[in-house]
Amino acid sequence: MVVLASKVDQDPDFRRIIAGLDGVSVHHFRFAGDGMYDPRILADVRQQYRAAGWEHVSASHARYGGPGGTDVWVRLDHMTIRNVAVLFAGPNQVNFVSVSCAISPIDLAHLAGHFGIPPIQGGIALPRVRNNADEYPPQQPQY
Q1: How does pLDDT run across 75-98, given as a tens digit for each residue?
Q2: What does pTM read for this prediction?
Q3: Which of 17-39 are b and which e, b meaning 16 or more Cβ less than 10 Å from the residue's Cβ?
Q4: How far, in Å, are 35, 63, 122, 128 from residue 57 at the CA level?
């Protein structure tokens, strides 16, 4: 489905990034009432990712101390993202998304505005190196 969606969009950067995706897995669990799942199981999942060496890049917790929260982990191979995992736990549902890929962190910005990913406000600012110039201005001596 991801490859089919990339054929609709003619953006070459987007198509290049999609070529780096190996697979996407989505698991959605819904419960009859709020807090019916065991939060200790989610804590065990979080601990397993930590123990396996994944980078925990984002976490949020449910308001007012209720069950739930969102966690994002990535597995890096040098400067390439190899896997992304997102765990979202709401009051009566748990969603787990796993992405297997080979993309750079900057490529994630190119996915903004596609697949329901919101656009990044203000874009991305990268440091610019001038040709034949020092990367940083020379330091003035301190007296």
Answers
A1: 988 888 889 898 988 888 999 888
A2: 0.67
A3: bbeebeeeeeeeeeeeeeeebee
A4: 25, 20, 21, 26
